[in-house]
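Memo subject: From amino acid sequence to discrete backbone structure tokens
Action wanted: Derive the backbone structure tokens from the amino acid sequence.
How to read it: Take the token row as a discrete description of the fold.
Attached in line: The record itself begins immediately under this heading.
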Amino acid sequence: MLEIKNLHARIAEDGTEILRGLNLSIAAGEVAAIMGPNGSGKSTLSYVLAGREDYEVTEGEVWYKGENILELDPAERAAKGLFLAFQYPVEIPGVATMQFLKTALNEQKKARGEAELTTPEFMRQVKQAAGELKINPDMLKRPLNVGFSGGEKKRAEILQMALLAPQLCLLDETDSGLDIDALKIVADGVNALRSPERAMVVITHYQRLLDYIVPDTVHVLYRGQVVQTGDKDLARELERNGYADLIEQHAA
């Protein structure tokens, strides 16, 4: 589903290179964990895939479902089934959460040539998805993410993911700031979306998230490249031993 070849990317503002020839392949149905020390390029990878303008791709290709998506803008990528869950979801005062969800869902449907949802149809979908994620309906009446706790913001993003049903989900440190109860709820929501047609990229620093969202593969980034790949046991090994050996091995 996703094939990244020799990807180089830098910060657009100052030219600092972050990704330095990254190669990665993820199949449909696969849950891939991305780990690595701070500054290794984990979040940058998710931003580049989603099309954020802060980053400039200088070399390489990103093939998604047989199409090189680097020339597509973020909205076009989203319409084709990419979804990015942010580490720190932003607050949007004045935009009602329910209106945001309905607009996002119908824009996706319109881009795919599908009929838009009526209000009753939309309400039924939201009610069902919110119930499964244990989201208080009163939360959905508030402006998007305004006054939300860290756990509420992450649940709101997983709710968006459940409604939009993307085919490639990018979860950028979605465990950041969550207590154990919120982590379990968010992980349950993610696991409920696992399917043979959907791939997930789970970016995390810590093994604890991968106890709940068990990955098929674990890829370790260092200095903008994938330097090690394994199964879920690799994450446990990194939790025990840290990155010191890996950094020493690849330092140059």
